[in-house]
Amino acid sequence: MHDKLEKAREILAEVTPLKTDCGKVCGARCCRSLEGEETGMLLFPGEEAYYAGKPGWTLRRTASGMLLVCPGSCARDERPLACRIFPLLPVIREGEVKVAADQRARVVCPLMKQGIRGMDPAFAEAVREAGKILMEDGAQRTFMERLTEEQDELKSLRDRLGGI
Ligand code: SF4
Ligand code: SF4
Fold first, then answer.
1. DSSP 27-57
2. Averaged pLDDT for residues 135-162
3. pLDDT digits 0-9 by tens, 82-102
4. Ligand 2 close to Cβ of residue 79 (< 6 A)
5. Is residue 130 part of a domain?
6. Is residue 11 part of a domain?
């Protein structure tokens, strides 16, 4: 197992966006697929090793990377990084890790109304810390650079569509 990945997952093992269970506020919207749609979480490089052959979990190779389809409920220690950091993301700005609200979360997560400032600062700090550790690994850094580009594209699309 990759040690940076393991460390990043560990840092985010206990902290959550709110001090209370935010899933109770929204009915765990980020864990629900839309009807007829089997969405999945994009894994950080190497993370598929945690799920290979695990009953109820499916891996799919896509152009963007490995996608994980989960059973729809899980124990905290089973969660991929994508779920542990949601609705935030570690992005890379001028060579430094910054924490940003995930553009994809805007339509799903009610916490996005208040943004990062409404969340537990320890959660945002843990996302930043995990990002800094991942940056030390070349493959993870490249992956995070791609995520950052994707976020910028989504943001510019949103702005063009009038900020919806
Ligand atoms: S959608 Fe947002 S508020 Fe709801 S469980 Fe997910 S992170 Fe928490
Ligand atoms: S892995 Fe767990 S936290 Fe992530 S979407 Fe599935 S059920 Fe929700």
1. TSGGGPPPTT----EEPPTTGGGGTTT-TT-
2. 94
3. 999 999 999 999 999 999 999
4. yes
5. yes
6. yes
Q: How far apart are the first and last CA of the chain?
A: 40
> What is the residue whose two structure tokens read 């996302």?
127
Task: Specify the number of domains making up the chain.
Answer: 1
**Opening angle at CA 123, ends 118 and 124, nearest 5:** 70
Q: What pLDDT does residue 164 have?
A: 60
Residue with tokens 């990945």: 5
Write out the residue range of the structural domain in which residue 22 sits. Answer: 3-30+79-159
For residue 135, is it within any domain?
yes
**Atom 2 of ligand 2 has which residue's CA nearest to it?**
74
* Residue 56 belongs to a domain: no
**Atom 4 of ligand 2 has which residue's CA nearest to it?**
83
Place of tokens 């996608």: 67
